[in-house]
Write a structure and sequence with these properties.
CATH superfamily of the largest domain: Metalloenzyme, LuxS/M16 peptidase-like
Radius of gyration: 23 Å
CATH architecture of the largest domain: 2-Layer Sandwich
Number of helices: 14
Order of helices and strands: EEHHHHHHEEHHEEHHHHHEH
Strand content: 5-15%
CATH topology of the largest domain: Cytochrome Bc1 Complex, Chain A, domain 1
Number of strands: 7
Helix content: 40-55%
Length: 348
């Protein structure tokens, strides 16, 4: 039994023997229809502690939180999933109950079952126990669209850790014709020991680690193409930024090779196939993509679209989206020695 929350959905996952499926439908339907919020304020403090551990005490997560808050002026993708501490601290039980009624409703729910089951029997069983779960009015749809970014944004976060940099460019999401080419570009830059970032930045000792992402913070709405790196001493954040921008600019001016293109496409398809390597992963994929993308088949369609991407497509999207105007750059720096000593309550 497990659960997770992303920017787009919350999921509850359970793995059990096929002959216990009916027991699950009995227990889970009762839990959702008649929730009991036991130890509410204890859980509030647990969430606050989770935020401290997962965000405030994690330099990479803290930088990510502050960068997305800076990159998004209007859209809710600019708010960290777990929320700000002041919001967690002051939330009350009635607010949570109201949220639960609006969002934890059958018309908001996707149930996916994967394994050795009879489909018709499974659907009938779920209908028998969840069928009287009352629908609720649909939540007000998100109408706020992020306005066009009109210039580069930069931010600095002081943190006593090795310096790191995070860069982000606004881009469209799954379903847009350009998303496939951007996905291929991401794999050319960062996937495996022969990727451009690995060969030209990590192997040259400029960064200790580097990674790129094409679907942050979420996939329901237009999102960000991100590049994150940890600086390798004696290099600086500025050195790493120059190296990253050099590789991003190469995509604009030089067509990628046929070998790079083929490798990226193979990696994309292979990763998707392997993501169905277990019943649990299969159920998660189908439910999540049905809930977030509106139809779980949009994912394989987006994977297949990558097959058609050409070197010219990669060059075109690089010039379209990897602009200074649409870029947000964040980095961590160590506090000045005097400030650090004061924060620690004495001398070092």
């Amino acid at each position: 039994l497990n659960a997770f929350t992303s920017y787009d959905a919350t999921a509850y996952i359970v793995s059990l023997p096929a002959n216990r499926l009916e027991l699950w439908t009995i227990l889970e339907s009762d839990r959702f229809k008649k929730p009991v919020l036991r130890e509410f304020y204890t859980e509030v403090e647990n969430v606050r502690e989770e935020r401290r551990l997962s965000v405030e005490d994690n330099p990479g997560a803290l930088l990510y939180e502050r960068l997305t808050a800076t990159a998004y002026d209007a859209h809710r993708y600019g708010v960290e999933i777990i929320g700000w501490d002041s919001e967690i601290r002051t939330i009350n039980r009635s607010e949570v109950e109201d949220y639960y009624r609006r969002y934890y409703a059958p018309n908001q729910m996707i149930i996916a079952v994967s394994g050795d089951v009879d489909p018709a029997e499974t659907v009938a069983m779920i209908d028998a126990y969840f069928g009287d779960y009352d629908r609720q009015p649909p939540p007000h749809p998100v109408q706020t669209e992020e306005p066009e970014q009109l210039g580069e944004k930069r931010l600095e976060v002081e943190y006593d850790a090795e310096p790191r940099i995070l860069m982000a460019w606004h881009k469209p999401t799954v379903g847009h014709p350009d998303n496939a080419a951007l996905t291929v570009a991401r794999h050319i830059l960062d996937n495996g020991l022969s990727s451009r970032f690995e060969r030209n930045i990590v192997n040259k000792g400029i960064a200790a680690s580097i990674s790129a992402g094409v679907d942050n913070p979420g996939e329901r709405y237009p999102n960000l193409f991100t590049v994150s790196a940890t600086v390798q001493s004696p290099h600086t954040v500025a050195d790493v930024e120059r190296a990253i921008l050099f590789e991003m600019d190469r995509l604009k001016t030089e067509p990628v090779t046929a070998a790079e293109l083929e490798k990226a496409k193979t990696q994309i398809e292979t990763a998707y196939v392997r993501s169905f390597g277990s019943n649990m992963r299969s159920a998660i994929n189908i439910a999540y993509e049905e809930a977030v993308l509106g139809n779980w088949m949009r994912r394989p369609e987006s994977i297949l679209a990558c097959r058609e991407v050409t070197a010219e497509d990669v060059q075109r999207v690089a010039n379209t989206y990897f602009k200074k105007q649409t870029r947000t750059v964040g980095y961590t720096v160590k506090p000045e020695e005097e400030e650090l000593e004061s924060a620690m309550g004495g001398t070092r």
